[in-house]
Records
---
Amino acid sequence: MSIQRNQIVALWNDYWFFRINLTLCVIGLIYLLG
Amino acid sequence: MFRFLQILFYIVIAWWLVSTLAGIHWIVLLAGTTMAGTNVTVVYMLREHPAVLVRFTNGIFWRGYVHCVCFFTGQPPCLDGTSESRPSLKLQSANDFELASKRAKQVVRGHDDVIDSMLSRLHENLTLRKSRKTADQAGPLASFLLAGPEGIGKRHLSRVVAKLLYGSAQVEVYDCGKLTKESLLGTVGQKGKLFDIVHRTPCVMLLFENIERADEGVVTAIVQLLTIGKLVPPGEATAIAFQQTTVVLTGCRSAKPDAERAPETREPQSLRTSIELVTSEIQIDARIAEAVTEVCLLSAPNDLVKAEVVALQMQKECRDHGVTLSKVAPEILAVQVLQIVEGEGFQFVPQRIQKLVRKPLMEATENHTTSLSLRIRPQSCA
């Protein structure tokens, strides 16, 4: 089970829920770790 | 450029949200980030590895959570991790399948062994799928190759099984003689109707008729569907899953009665024998015969079965008009049975029955009677 770039791109394109949560997750991690 | 601006917009919004929340406590932020990360993971798992998700969603809380994610993303609940325990499949236990088998035999006559075979394969596949640890290489729920003479009720049998299994008699029928790869899968920029149907209702029965007439492109697509359970629309990166569908392929076999066949071909001993028989009698691609779950050989019905089918059709026609058919003279049944010729089977039986009972039904309607008895009117001597 490996994550491929095109799978993430497809999810990003298809679901607004995925876009918002991924963005929040990345920003949250940057903020917390920084 | 537009995508870059879109991503930037999301980052600015998220940054603003995080900055606002930063004043509260870092633990709240940590919880929010964890929540967002979990959402991302669940959306990914729902799409790519639903069977793996099943192992981690046992409790009511997690099931509810997965359903919420399904609601927000619009992914079909049938494919989510909890579909095995709250299915849109009507048959689950061995008892369900046994009852379904009895019901199917009441409405489909002359194919008892095929009904048993189809339902037992479906039961086995469902049980094994639940215990399977990975979703990789999982084909459809089950696939069947029904080989038999024209007009003996292959489509009717499929509809009855679909009704019992999914609760809906919706069967998507494709005639392989007229089907091309483009009409099945679509073209770049325009997906085929098949993908829309499966995306909208993942639990559906797909019926490919006259499989021996399918061209190479269609055969390749069907083999991929049967083996992997996924098809990729032309020009797209994401595959559509067909893992909740049931695929039925039909092939036209000669209507030679079983008595005239060689003794070793009357009752195939194993799946291997059935495959060899089918590939020898029908010009079918060997890959299809190998890929299907079960090969079912349907024989031409005998006169008793034909009479039962005619009687059932008469009952149905009368019932549709609010009249009960109490008795039918055997001679009437015999005449109808004799009109069923090899090669067309039961194809025109409903039309003949409609013509036959039109006058008696008219009289019954005019006289407001609810019971009807069909008998031959004696000829007058004059």
---
Amino acid sequence: MDEAIQPINVQSAKQKIKSYSHNPGSLILAGLVGLAALLTVLTLVFIVGYILIKGIPNLTPELFQLEYNSENVSMFPAIINTICMTVLSLLIAGPLGILAAVYLVEYAKKGNKLVSLVRVTAETLTGIPSIVYGLFGMLFFVTTLHWGYSMLAGAFTLAIMVLPVIMRTTEEALLSVPDTFREASFGLGAGRLRTIFVVILPSAVPGIFSGVILSIGRIVGETAALMYTAGTVAELPKSVMSSTRTLSVHMYSLASEGLYVDQAYATAVVLLLIVLIINWISGRIARKIKKG
Amino acid sequence: MKDIKETVMKYVFLLCACASILAVVLICLFLFANGVPAIGKIGIFDFLLGEKWKPGNDIYGILPFILGSIYVTAGAIVIGVPVGILTAIFMARFCPPKLYRFMKPAVDLLAGIPSVVYGFFGLVVLVPFVRDFFGRTLGFGGSGASMFTASVMLGIMILPTIISVGESSIRAVPNSYYEGALALGATHERSVFFTVVPAAKSGIMAGIILGVGRAIGETMAVIMIAGNQPRMPKGLFKGVRTLTSNIVIEMGYATDLHRDALIATAVVLFVFILLINLLFSLVKRRGTNG
């Protein structure tokens, strides 16, 4: 997949020009395709470049102070909140998703009704817009379970959101573990559990990790699902039951209030950097998996 | 002893597998239980086809928002789909390997940028541009926060979905199609566009449907640049409010029937998404059956 196709009709420039002069339609198509790709890349470069150029000068040390107040809208508490929220969500969704994938791959028999039901629901979960998650979180965790606007409510909401991601990537990773591993382990007298935890899961770690990284990306970028579950308090959290705002929510508040545009630029830079790092790591993992 | 442990763990795994089923059931239950009675109270036709949204007077018609969502999504399709498909074709069949090593991460990055950052970019770049260029210079008027602005932004946001799904389905087409066309004397472009791409049609279609789902469900970016006036959409360069933005904007202070009407709005959105998901799996199944 990584390499582009190997051309089987290698032509010299001269041949190409001749071919195009006979077929102007082909030239137009080639031009259109190139133009579209250029447009896509330019859009990305423009967005990222604009935000970096406008934002980096605004990354002042004051923005990384412990305390948030109206004079200094520090983003440091929001960064801490984001980290806590990410860890908490992954602690919930990680084990659930991984163990669920183990069941789907290692235990369920082919054509099992339950398995197809799990697949359908997981696909449904992937498609649900984040604001619907947010409303559900508000109705269930905040109101019905009386957790109030809290980090815990936000983390559970996000956990449901990233559960299908972790499940799918883990499933793929488990499926790609060769059956000979399982056979060898059984042959040595290991039970099913031992085989899963000692042989299969360890060799599926890179795949599972890539799912976790993808989930981190979604959690960090999420806004709509958090506004009405974790709330928008911009201070350091006292416990998992206190209301918090993550970096994305922080940025939305700054941008929509209209008073702190410079700080919003700076926050956008931090968010972009996080995304860049996440993409870089997942690219490395993907390459590692491919090499085997 | 060992057998007990094995059996217990088997059920633990089973239980975890049921988590996603439980989640979907809970989401449906809570949304419908809170939203459907409100729809009943307002009257289903008044709710879905009412042209006025005035919570102060207990008038809750969400037709403006349904239309807003549909128009903005249609705009995103018009802008995003041609560029997305052509880029997918470029990446699968035209891109030299050296350039590909740069293009692929670029598309991934486009997919990874949080929607609030897209929205902010729209707010500080697109909105002033639309206001000054289309509004003043071309005389369309408007404040810049408009249906057009939101369509452009969403068009950009659905690009990575369309590109990556489209690219992988074009790559999945057997190379013999391409070789056969070449052997018949077709140029590279003709072979790609008239044999390979038609064979990848259902995969490309699935990508577009996924993109539509993303555009309809997008909230934060739209809120920041669409103007959000709660009235019937009046024109391409006038403000518009979508289903998603209606929920976020008013949920903070809504009470009683107003609050339930907002949850009912989410129910409508949810039904939209379920229909799109259904369409997606139908298209995908047709694709795998050949």
---
Amino acid sequence: MQRNPQLNANGELQHLLSIEGLPREVLLQILDTAESFAGVTEREVKKVPILRGKSVFNLFFEASTRTRTTFEIAAKRLSADVINLNIAVSSQSKGESLLDTVANLSAMQADIFVVRHGSSGAPYLIARHVKPHEHVINAGDGRHAHPTQGLLDLYTIRHYKKDFRALRVAIVGDVLHSRVARSLIHGLTTLGAPEVRVIGPQTLLPSGVESLGVRVHHDMRAGLKDCDVVVMLRLQSERMNGALLPSAQEFFKQYGLTLDKLSGAKPDAIVMHPGPMNRGVEIDSSVADGPHSVILPQVTFGIAVRMAVMSIVAGNR
Amino acid sequence: MKLHIKNGRIVDPASGKDGTGELLIADGVIAKEIGKADRVIDAKGLVVAPGFIDLAARLREPGFEYRATLESEIEAALAGGVTSLACPPDTDPPLDEPGLVDMLCRRALALSRARVYPVGALTMKLAGERLTEMAELAEAGCVAFSQANSPLADTQVLWRALQYAATFGFPVWLRAEDAWLGRGGVAHEGEVATRLGLPGIPAFAETIALATLLELARATRARLHVCRLSSAGGVELVRAAKREGLPVTCDVAVHHLHLSERDIGYFDSNCRLEPPLRSERDRDALALGLEDGTIDCACSDHTPVDDDGKHLPFAEAEPGATGLELLLPLTLKWGESRKLGIAKTLARITSDPARVLGVPSGLAPGAPADIAIFDPAATLRVSAEALKSQGKHTPFAGYELQGRVRYTLVGGHLVYEA
């Protein structure tokens, strides 16, 4: 087996490609660094000079508003120059290959590539071909990983719940297609959460998902019982009517999070969602806007977490 | 040309013979006496065996000449000791009309190197709708009919195609993969695909299709050869069918004897293969199946892919690996891991595929002098530079494998020497 391609020879974070395989110390380093940046985002002058003179290329082969914007804000608060490339509508449609695109941008003196791609593993391919001083941050690849989302989820959980080692966490919905779920599961198991549950119909759970270290529930109420954290996943509209699910209505009835279903969780349970939400499909508005919801703070924490990741990788060669 | 091969270890799987001796060749065949030899080859320390027969080697002509040409791939075959090869019909256009087959045969003949046996398309454009003119194609040189890697979804067409082929006694070589269950998949549906977020192809995509194929073979009495078995369940189904007496044969790609889904590692596109690499349990069942004869032979499933086709995210990368030059070392590695004698090991790439193909193989006097002479102890470090094939991509890059071909003879001509 090859060496984990995201760590350098000293075991430091060279690229951030996946939470899987990252040592506990590295995860904690990112979370602690993010905590120190949280203050910056609340100051009147929201800038630190850590990445001054560095160029961050946002390479989005797949459309995204929220993730791209928070990366952009994070980079700017670190004083980096940010270049946004919406490749979904530029060179790829002219037939340029992924590696050619990257080589061209590299020739423009990039320091960090933030990559979102529809194909699992694409950031690994890029990381194998960039120069030693360049860093790749995975901003979501296919169904595989979305490590900064996973990290901001971990940050949020730690913010509200302090200790991972006493937590029961439920992840609900379309786990099969979810890079968010995979990243969070690896993070939680690495940080010692004793019980991670996934809840959904068989059609939306990947085969052998137990091998990731989770317990499978098909019944929402049983799955939510006594949970400290409930993470709802987005259900893509193209998957609502077909061979995976009969309808959004039936899904909502079985697996949509309502106040009633949530009442089986711990009284102080928090509810998270990576966004964008489908109200009335996976989550009821009364929950999304209710007292258990920490969905908007997640977005705010996301900026600090992305600042932490960029500043850490940029400091490692 | 009269050749005298002396001091070699002569291994003839067809007769089970294995011992030091000499081999005489004249007029393209193995002879008892030749008088004075034009050339003497001292094969001390080398194994002298029948040339290897590969049931699946893509030469990429016509249509994919930018990936490989007949010349480059036949050179690769000879460097690997492969003297006969069957090429699947997934060229561009596919081998679905006699003119194309005729041209391919003429091109191969003009090179007068390895023997090339085209496998014709079972359906036009491999689209699974209309039968090809099998009788015409057979006349042009096709030895069997196949869908290559395009599964035939419509079982009505599949049934009729097998009936039609059976009418003329034409062999049908098919991979067992359900068209719907395999749709969109790029890796074995299992632990690794779940972890990496890759769309999966379940093992039952193979067993369900295989059960259909076996049932149709029973009904139509078609001569069925199952290509590239990949799962333990598939091996079990073939084992049961053979026990029952069904005249079915099958092969396995040599990669699948050694690798599993775990070798995908961090999205190594060299491990993007069709069928996919499955679990370690599947791999072990394939290795055992080849040993006990459930699986008749190993093939290279040689598929040259260029850099552009492989330097892509895993799911978008083109499936396939180069294999002609690795067939011998990987088969030897399998034989060694199963503790098999060299004659039994080599049978799986000589006399057994010859039986499937319906061609002679062996070192008895009078047999065509197709011969591979190799050093079983010499090491091959697999790298792009070490390969003659235009396809440089293989999951075995960087491996050190044992077994290097020194001489290859086809029809008594010395066509490769290293």
